[in-house]
Amino acid sequence: MIYGGAMALMQDDIKRLLAYSSISQMGYILFGIGSMSVLGLSGAEMMYVTHALGKGILFMMAGIIIVKVGTRNISQLGGLAGKMPITAVCAVIGALTIMGVPPTSGFMGEWTLFYGALETAIEDGSTVRAVTFGLGLVATVLTMSYILWMLKRVFFGKLPEHLEHVKEGSWYMTAPMMVLAGFTIVLGIYPDIFFNQIIPYMSGVLGV
């Protein structure tokens, strides 16, 4: 979780940043599985789904930028929100999902996962689990850092002169992003669509 987040902070290539972000997000899933609690496992499963939604949106964003701008170097971008508003809005929703901010599915996934991990740490009276829980929170701060840093440098600030003629992607490019953005918000507002099925299943897995 921490290694992937730290490496993402160092990247200038937008796709490499997202790739290291995925490494960090897989750490969250393993963290939830390691809790060996019903909520921890359910949160990990939710994170699996929510990562697919959020990161799918962000990789689509990267693809549109590469096609329309011709580069994936973050240092050469900036101020694209005015030129690509649909892409920018969807990217922000995808970013909120990865950061675990409501009302996206990422919030419910992380909240449930961390609650399960803390629950296990308290029940076991384990210092190691408590310290691991704290390190997980540090990883979440790292996640917010590299995601917000990327958004700021890609979509906000002054528009470089060489990007004056950039246009929004076609509907073939933006429509899939909008669909995924809609899914993550619906799942964030109505998480029981998912949890009503997965929590009883995880209870059976653990024999609770």
Account of the 3D structure:
With 208 residues, the protein is mostly helical. The chain has one domain (2-191). Helices cover 76% and strands 0% of the residues. The chain is built from eight helices and no strands. The protein has helices at residues 2-9, 14-34, 38-69, 85-99, 105-124, 127-155, 171-189, 192-206. Helix 1 runs antiparallel to helix 2, helix 3 runs antiparallel to helix 5 (105-124) and helix 3 (38-69) packs antiparallel against helix 7. The chain is elongated, with a radius of gyration of 18 Å. The mean pLDDT is 92.
Question: Which descriptors apply to this entry?
Answer:
mainly alpha, elongated
Concise synopsis of the structure shown:
This protein has eight helices and no strands.
SSE inventory with pairings:
Layout: H1 2-9, H2 14-34, H3 38-69, H4 85-99, H5 105-124, H6 127-155, H7 171-189, H8 192-206
Rg of Cα set: 18 Å
Low-confidence stretches: none
- Main β-sheet: number of strands, strand sense, barrel status? none
- Beta strand %: under 5%
| DSSP, total strands | 0
Measured as a percent range, the helix fraction is over 70%
Shape type: elongated
- For the record, give the distance between the C-alpha atoms at the N and C termini, rounded to a whole number: 29 Å
Q: How do the SSEs run, as a string of H and E?
A: HHHHHHHH
Average predicted local confidence, pLDDT: 92
Oligomer: single chain
Domains (count): 1
> How many alpha or pi helices?
8
- Counting helices, strands and paired strands, the structural category is mainly alpha
